[in-house]
Amino acid sequence: MSYFAAVLARHRDRWRAAEVDLADCESVDDIAEVAREVPGEIRLLVVEQDDEYAVLARIDADDEPRVFLSDGHAADAYPLAAVIAAELEEIGGEDIDEELFGDAPIRHDCAPFGDPSVVEDLGTPSPELLELCAHEGTLPVDLILAVCERAGCVEAFEAVRA
Question: What pTM was computed for the model?
Fold first, then answer.
C-alpha cells in the first residue's frame, strides 16, 4: 500500500513542491510538523493512496492545521487515513450548514471528513471540492490536480509527482 505525499509551498508568487514521508506520523499535528519543515507562506500538503482517497491539509504559520479527507471509508483500510479521520468530523451529518455547502452532493456512500473550505482561498470553493469527491470516476489524483490547477501550482505538483 503505497502513498504519495507532497507539500506545495508558495513564497510570494512562486510555488515549489517537496515530496515528504509521513510514515512516522501518528496525528494531524505530526503531519503538520512535517509540512512546516518546507518553507513557504502558504503550505498545502497533499496525499493520495492507491487511487482510494486524497488528503488536503493547509498548514499556515503556527495556526491549527485544516484538513480534508476525500473518503472517510479509507480509514478502514489505510492507517494514514485512519490517523487523519480520527481527528476530523464526517461531512453530511444532521448539522449540515446549507449556506456553506449549497447544493453540493454531500451525502454519498463514502462521505468526506474534515474542512471542505480548506482550499477556498486557493480557488476551489467547498461545494466544488465536495462535488469532485462525489463525482463517480474522479480519482483522488484528479481531485488534487483540479485543486492545484486552480491554485496555480499544478506544474510544481506534476514535477514532484513524475
Answer: 0.87
